[in-house]
């Protein structure tokens, strides 16, 4: 049954409210049996979301002006805008509320799925903000698979320290959290985040907005402009309506756009911008929603990922948190399309994939007249900012799932001959680490490898990110000229820098090797082999003894290790019971199995897995 079938029969009970809505919205009641279109947005409790409503309102008014039965109008039914809810990563880091951050991606997906499917939307324009709602939104649009297009709300402008003139931002504020001068801490807090918009550095928000643009679901020129850019409520609003109308006319759907080659393109660009480690959580979820069962087999293998990052794809941006500039600066030198052009011209992207503008990626870049790299904010492939890509996945005996991820672009020292050797200092949860950083910062020594565990998708539950402790450790390292590593089964903000390794799996709560490390164990990070190892666990007797002690603690606590966090709400309990591993995206799926859509429904949507092919121009391992 088609989404509009129940309306087409003209049943008075089902029609009367639809007529009422048309009258309330000021649209033609005679169009209530036509396919529907509408705008969706995201709301939350921080300045990241404050600009969304104005864009949604502007786009809704443009849609309203275009729908109707007249010549040149869209013969469609308009529905009122709807919003999903998410939390603020920036405001919640270092708190137990941060457990809801990644879960927010799932809540967005679920809520938007209900709206899209129950309303039967035949065309959608989505305005997204912050880190997780954009991914949840894209996943829902892919599942629904009707014409749709996304616009990011836009980044915030960097703040400026009025005393020094230095550009500062959210990460600056987190990095001074351990400063003993309360007045200085307040001074930075007052000036770091003026105005509205999502985080302005190459943190997770801008990593994923760039990803969504390059994967084809957002026009490239709409990614980088700041939230307060007037184009977002004027020219862009008109363009989005025109693009959606064209997509509806051509029946161009999300799964026609988000294919294997376009996802690979987006991953390669994430490497080239030194993007957030969260991309290895979000890309598998996007691939899952696009119909691929296993990102690390169907899209790219860990070995190929590392080969591309290590030998093929350089970092092209001097961007925060590892560099100097913000996304607003990238916009000022030409935008994301400049980065895409550099990589396309170097043969690193497949330009033949389709995008939401109705053009191929190459044609869109050409039409936009993408500039050449300026060599200051954005660099060229032949003269890059850094010679190797910004991300590396690690195997080894601590990461047998090959899930551990390192943001190599953010490493500030400690890798001699691409190797770090440190002493384990174990913390059973983030809270205990923060207490130690608050009360005894001098206890941290050069070449400590801090281990934070029981904070994974099931253990926390919710897999919180750790911008607060990583920022404090970064400041300690800079002040004392030492190197302290951190590894965890949780994840990091895109604003984290330093020798920090996340997504170590299987997680401690599920009995992964990270659960068996003890204080003083040697930890070896070997980037020549892309491995993360604890030599003590290579000894079978040692491993057996430690595992037996762990099993005993779990059995005595009713099947759950006592160091796991409390699942004291239905949502957290759902996360504990259904979260899949980081390699599968850390999302919430029944029976911990990655949910793949009913193939019969996929066929009806024109989707065939066997037609998804290897890239034409992506360099492969």
Helices and strands, with pairings:
Layout: H1 5-8, H2 12-25, E1 36-43, H3 52-66, E2 77-78, E3 82-85, H4 89-92, H5 100-119, E4 121-128, H6 132-144, E5 148-152, E6 159-160, E7 167-168, H7 170-175, H8 182-191, H9 204-215, H10 235-250, H11 254-257, H12 260-272, H13 279-289, H14 295-299, H15 302-312, H16 327-332, H17 336-345, H18 361-367, E8 391-394, E9 404-407, E10 419-427, H19 430-439, E11 448-452, H20 467-480, E12 485-488, E13 500-502, E14 522-526, E15 531-533, H21 540-556, H22 570-578, H23 599-604
Parallel strand pairs: 1-2, 1-3, 1-4, 4-5, 10-11, 11-12, 12-13
Antiparallel strand pairs: 6-7, 8-9, 9-13, 10-14, 14-15
Helix pairs in contact: 3-10, 5-6, 6-9, 6-13, 9-12, 19-20
Report strand order across the widest sheet.
8-9-13-12-11-10-14-15
* Percentage of residues in helical conformation: 25-40%
Strand content: 5-15%
Number of domains: 3
Determine the structural class based on helices, strands and strand pairing: alpha/beta
Summed up, the helix count is: 23
Tell the overall outline: globular
Mean pLDDT: 91
Query: What integer value in Å does the Rg equal?
Result: 24 Å
Largest sheet: 8 strands, mixed
Distance between the amino and carboxyl termini: 44 Å
Count the strands? 15
Low-confidence stretches: 1-7, 592-621
């Amino acid at each position: 049954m088609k989404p509009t079938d129940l309306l087409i029969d003209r049943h008075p009970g089902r029609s009367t409210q639809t007529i009422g809505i048309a009258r309330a919205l000021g649209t033609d009641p005679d169009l209530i049996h036509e396919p529907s279109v509408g705008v969706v947005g995201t709301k939350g409790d921080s300045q990241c979301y404050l600009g969304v409503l104005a864009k949604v309102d502007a786009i809704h008014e443009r849609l309203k002006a275009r729908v109707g039965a007249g010549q040149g109008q869209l013969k469609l039914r308009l529905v009122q805008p709807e919003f999903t809810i998410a939390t603020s990563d920036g405001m919640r880091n270092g708190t137990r509320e941060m457990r809801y951050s990644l879960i927010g991606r799932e809540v967005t997906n679920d809520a938007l799925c209900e709206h899209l499917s129950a309303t039967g939307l035949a065309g959608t324009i989505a305005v997204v903000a912050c880190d997780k709602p954009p991914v949840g939104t894209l996943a829902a649009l892919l599942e629904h698979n009707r014409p749709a297009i996304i616009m990011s709300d836009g980044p915030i402008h960097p703040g400026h320290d009025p005393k020094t003139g230095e550009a500062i931002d959210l990460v600056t504020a987190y990095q001074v959290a351990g400063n003993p001068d309360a007045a200085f801490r307040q001074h930075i807090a007052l000036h770091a985040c003026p105005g509205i918009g999502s985080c302005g550095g190459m943190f997770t928000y801008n990593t994923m907005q760039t990803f969504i643009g390059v994967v084809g679901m957002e026009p490239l020129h709409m990614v980088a402009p700041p939230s307060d850019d007037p184009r977002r409520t004027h020219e862009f609003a008109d363009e989005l309506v025109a693009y959606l109308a064209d997509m509806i006319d051509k029946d161009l759907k999300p799964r026609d756009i988000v294919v294997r080659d376009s996802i690979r393109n987006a991953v390669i660009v994430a490497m080239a911008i030194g993007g957030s480690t969260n991309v290895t959580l979000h890309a598998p979820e996007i691939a899952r929603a696009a119909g691929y069962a296993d990102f690390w087999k169907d899209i790219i293998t860990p070995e190929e990922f590392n080969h591309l990052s290590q030998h093929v794809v350089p970092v092209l941006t001097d961007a925060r948190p590892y560099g100097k500039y913000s996304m607003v600066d990238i916009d000022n030198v030409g935008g994301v399309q400049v980065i895409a052009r550099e990589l396309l011209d170097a043969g690193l992207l497949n330009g033949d994939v389709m995008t939401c503008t109705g053009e191929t990626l190459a044609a869109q870049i050409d039409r936009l007249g993408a500039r050449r790299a300026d060599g200051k904010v954005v660099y060229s492939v032949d003269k890059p900012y850094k010679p190797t890509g910004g991300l590396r996945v690690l195997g080894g005996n601590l990461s047998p799932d090959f899930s551990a991820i390192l943001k190599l672009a953010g490493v500030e020292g400690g890798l001699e001959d691409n190797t770090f050797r440190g002493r384990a200092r174990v913390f059973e949860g983030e809270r205990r680490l923060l207490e130690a950083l608050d009360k005894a910062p001098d206890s941290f020594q050069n070449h400590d490898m801090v281990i934070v565990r029981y904070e994974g998708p099931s253990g926390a539950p919710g897999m919180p990110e750790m911008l607060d402790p990583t920022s404090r450790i970064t400041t300690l390292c800079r002040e004392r000229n030492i190197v302290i590593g951190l590894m965890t089964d949780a994840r990091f903000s895109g604003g984290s820098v330093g020798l920090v390794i996340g997504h170590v799996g299987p997680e401690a709560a599920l009995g992964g090797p990270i659960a068996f490390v003890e204080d003083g164990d040697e930890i070896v990070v070997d980037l020549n082999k892309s491995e993360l190892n604890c030599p003590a666990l290579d000894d079978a007797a040692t491993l057996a003894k430690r595992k037996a002690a762990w099993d005993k603690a779990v059995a005595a606590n009713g099947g759950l290790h006592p160091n796991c966090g409390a699942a004291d709400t239905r949502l957290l309990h759902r996360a504990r019971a259904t979260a899949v591993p980081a390699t599968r995206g850390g999302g919430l799926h029944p029976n911990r199995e990655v949910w793949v859509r009913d193939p019969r429904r996929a066929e009806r949507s024109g989707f065939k897995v066997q037609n998804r092919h290897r890239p034409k121009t992506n360099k492969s391992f």
